[in-house]
User: Fold this.
Amino acid sequence: MSAVLAKANADAESATARAWAVLEQVPDPEVPVVSVCDLGIVRDVAVQGQGVAVVLTPTYSGCPATEVIAQSVHDALAGAGFDPVTVSTRRAPAWTTDWISDAGRRKLRAYGIAPPSGNAAVHDDGPRPIRIHARGVDCPRCGSSQTEKLSAFGSTACKALYRCLACREPFEYFKPI
Ligand SMILES: [Zn+2]
Assistant:
C-alpha cells in the first residue's frame, strides 16, 4: 500500500470514528437519556471525502420519532463539519428491541424505565416463529420481580405502564418487539 493511500485510509478511519462519536451524542427524542447508538438504529456510517452517509433503521413503524431522529442526526453531523450529510433509512431487517445495547439498557434502568427483556420474537430457520415466553418485568428501581401491569400504553405507544408491588412505585416498561 502506498504511503498516500495509507494516509487516506487512516483519515477516513478517524473521520468514521468521529462520526460515530457525534452519533453517540444524538439522543432518542422520546427517551433522551439513550442515544441513537444505544438504541441500535444506526446501521451504517460511510465517510467519503468531507461527507458522510448514515443509514438508520426506524424503531417502531409509525413512530413519529423517526423523522425527528433523522433531522437530529443530520444536524449533529453537519454541525461537526461533515458536508454533505445524507441520512437514509433501511427498513429490512426490521429493528427489534434486542438491538438496544447493554449500555442503553443500563441507561434506561437508571432513568427509571424497565428495559425490554430478551423476549422479542425470534425465528429459527424453519417456517414457524418461536416466541420465547416473557419473563416478568423487574422493577428498575428496586429490582423486584413482583410487578403488575397497569396499562398497555405508557407515555408513548412504545412503552407500557407497570407498578412495583414491593416499592409501590409506578414505572414504564419499554415493550419488546
Ligand atoms: Zn420496586
Notes: Residues 113-174 form one domain.
